[in-house]
Amino acid sequence: MKFFMFHLMPWPYLPETYVGPAWVRCPNSFYDGRRGHGLYNRYLDELIRAEALGFDGVCVNEHHANAYGNMPSPNLIAAILARQTVRMRIAVVGNALPLYNPPIRVAEEYAMIDCISGGRLIAGMVVGGGPEYYSNGLNPAEARERFGEALDLILRCWTEPGPFVHMGKHYKLRYVNPWPTPVQQPHPPIWIPGAGSYETMDFVARRRWAYMGIPYFHKRVFKKNFDYFREACEKEGYTASPEQMGWLVPVYVAETDAQARAEFEPHLWYFAKRLLPGINISPPGYTSPRSALKMLGAFGEFLLNVGTWEQVVEGAYAIVGSPATVRERMAELIGWLGVGNVLSLLQLGTLPADLTRRNMELFASEVLPHLRDETGMSAESSAAAIAPVA
Fold it and tell me: Which residue would you say has higher pLDDT here, 378 or 284?
């Protein structure tokens, strides 16, 4: 069992009068570089602090043209973390491969991060969210084709001596010869996040990689998706291990249940009602009719459409309470879902630095050790620790 801290680096300063989407069409005049300077450095401090608190790793991810997550280049953030930490894993979840042309840039940058960190990178690969196809002017009908070809090319970069020639449908390169190559051999672990499309889960099962469930859905949606993934693995002739599945969930811990709700609830609603609108944009051709119908059926159980705190608690959209409450609830859900990776979102929406810091500390001291005891796993390095040289 591995415990990661996930960070979105959200923009907490949308004007109260703004009622539009946070994605694609949210005016960038709302952004202030001076405030951004403070936020980036604060968020980096929180991620770096996770190592001293005993987390197994941290997670960052890529999004564009939005207020929800200000990381158009998670690789920049990962490179800083690689230099400023020595033990924990660094999961980039992930690079949206169809947005990169040529995708060998991903192979190169991931290899750099793996080298700087001494072999601690987890390489996340994603098709990219629907809004990204609007923001970047890409044909969504080619999304999965481009993703598959790009991923195969990246794996060749890491496992096949160069130079070599790649002449695919979408990418044509006469000289593929990436320097550097990763520390981890044959390549860093690969995680594929997804919102529940059949194609993604079948693809990950076929490759025997790890599937990370995207959050903000009712707990039963997660359960159905992980059950389907396990069935897909069985069809491929093997039994999925818990380490092949990850559950991403917002968590907030305070001294009492009442205090936790009072402190966290306003920030949750800012996130749900101000930062999620527009995230569900799905252009025609982006996914199959079968998967689109499935995901449309689950949309009513998406956090954006939740209206009461009681629904939040019942659906486990966030785990909020005293240390005892959070321990009990998380242990129950980890067992029920059967996952081996927990990705805790400990900063959400407008949650300020002091509350985020205390949340991280309480989770690390009062929740994490008990969950490790229950799963029989102690904190351990996932890779050889290589100290900074300066």
Answer: 284
In this prediction, residue 50 carries a pLDDT of 99
Q: Which two tokens stand for residue 67?
A: 């207020």
CATH number of 2-375: 3.20.20.30
> What's the mean pLDDT when you consider all of the chain?
93
Do residues 187 and 221 make contact, with C-beta atoms less than 8 angstroms apart? Answer: no
Whole-angstrom Cα distance, residue 114 to residue 234? 32
Q: Which pLDDT belongs to residue 292? A: 72
Q: DSSP readout, 230-261?
A: HHHHHHTTSPPPGGGEEEEEEEEE-SSHHHHH
Tell how strand 164-167 and strand 172-176 pair up.
antiparallel
Q: What is the pLDDT of residues 229-275, one digit of tens each?
A: 999 999 999 999 999 999 999 999 999 999 999 999 999 999 999 99
Cis peptide before 163, with omega less than 30 degrees from 0? yes
| Rounded Cα gap, residues 241 and 350, in angstroms | 36
Give the residue from 374, 389, 270 showing the smallest Cα distance to 331: 374
Quick one: pLDDT at residue 376?
A: 61
Residues whose CB falls within 8 Å of the CB of residue 324, separated by 6 or more in sequence, listed in order: none
- Please enumerate in sequence order all residues whose Cβ is within 8 A of that of 274, keeping only pairs 6 or more positions apart, or say none: 14, 22, 67, 349
pTM of the predicted structure, to 2 decimals: 0.94
At 52, is the pLDDT very low, low, confident or very high (cuts 50, 70, 90)?
Answer: very high
Q: Is the pLDDT of residue 389 over 70?
A: no
Closest among 64, 60, 34 to 47, alpha carbons compared: 60
Element (H, E) at 122: strand 121-126
Query: Is the CB of residue 303 less than 8 Å from the CB of residue 270?
Result: no
Token pair recorded at residue 201:
């889960």
Q: What token pair was written down for 290?
A: 């079968």
Helix (H) or strand (E) holding 195: none
Closest CA to 91 of 200, 209, 189, 180: 189
